[in-house]
# Entry
Amino acid sequence: LKRDGYKNVSLTAQVVLVMVDILPGLNGHIRAKVNIAKANAISYLERKLESLDDPYDMALVAWALTKADSAKKETALNLLDTMKRVEGKDSQKPFIRPKNDQKWDAHAVETTSYALLVYIAREGIGIIQENIVRFLAVMRELDGGLISTLDSVAAMEALVEYSFRARLRDVTDMRITLEHSANPNFTVDVYLGNTYDLADLRSFDVSLHSVKEGKEVRREREMEKGWFM
# Structure
């Protein structure tokens, strides 16, 4: 494959990732052939590493070299780090509506997901990793996925790895009991676990009586719609 006048290294990086995963389950001459192919592919990526100027290629190659335990995995991390762009938290403008979907959103999510995998593997959990997770969380759609299939798969892999390293499973596996102070018989248990019910919407009707004026009237009307979990 060719893109922008040079051979596309991303395909080779994907092949390296696959070979690293399947190699432990192979035996005999097939294992030997895959080992040779993996070594050749890693050598190719190492030669092309410092000539890469596309963030997607750099992130994917860095992840492949890191997962394959290449001698240049540290160099790949440093080069990837020079390409990172940090924005946000620098505007006081009260945006009322979220930004519209952009053409390259899926590309950005996939690239950022590979970068997150590299940072987690090399540096563990830190500020950069947390900021990347926040970005991926913002990009998620209402059904829990992201923009396309490919970037959703990459993001889910990165987020699962982050959740495992940060021990978020123990934090998010919980039960919440809702009680009504004015009605002792009203009790609802809500389970927040690790099941595939992300898109489920539960609502509970709550009677509300209040007397407000000015801005509080709008808040009251919003609350009358019920509580959602």
Observations:
- Strands lie at 2-3, 6-7, 174-180, 183-192, 203-204, 227-228.
- The chain has three domains: 1-76, 84-172, 174-228.
- The CA atoms of residues 19 and 34 lie 7 Å apart.
